[in-house]
Amino acid sequence: MIPFEKTLPYDILMKDVYVLECPFCKKDNVLLPLKPRDIVHVHEGKKKLLIFPCCGNKVMLLDSDSDYLLTDTVLR
Ligand SMILES: [Zn+2]
Questions:
Q1: Dist CA 31 CA 53 (whole Å)
Q2: How far is ligand 1, taken at its centre, from the CA of residue 28, in Å?
Q3: What is the pLDDT of residue 17?
Q4: If you measure from the C-alpha of residue 10 to the centroid of ligand 1, how many angstroms do you get, rounded to a whole number?
């Protein structure tokens, strides 16, 4: 089971990946520098560094499913 406090819910809209709210600076609707295929690659085991464009905070993406990204960082 995925540890809830290290997950980040996301949405894909027109092949762009968004989070509803940045867990660090609380900005709404942040467009992430990810493509949907990056999320598939993360699920296949390819770790990826995600840098939030709003505030520059960094998390490592470890896994994903259709709703959540699993990171190495406690986000909530
Ligand atoms: Zn931010």
A1: 8
A2: 9
A3: 98
A4: 14
Q: What is the pLDDT of residues 4-62, one digit of tens each?
A: 999 999 999 999 999 999 999 999 999 999 999 999 999 999 999 999 999 999 999 99
Would the pLDDT of 1 be above 70? no
**What is the domain partition of the chain in residue ranges?**
9-71
Any residues with CB less than 8 A from the CB of 32 and at least 6 apart, and which? 10, 17, 18, 19, 50, 52, 53
The span from the CA of 69 to the CA of 46, in Å, is 13
* Gyration radius from the chain CA atoms: 11
pTM of the model: 0.92
Distance 44 CA to ligand 1 centre (A): 26
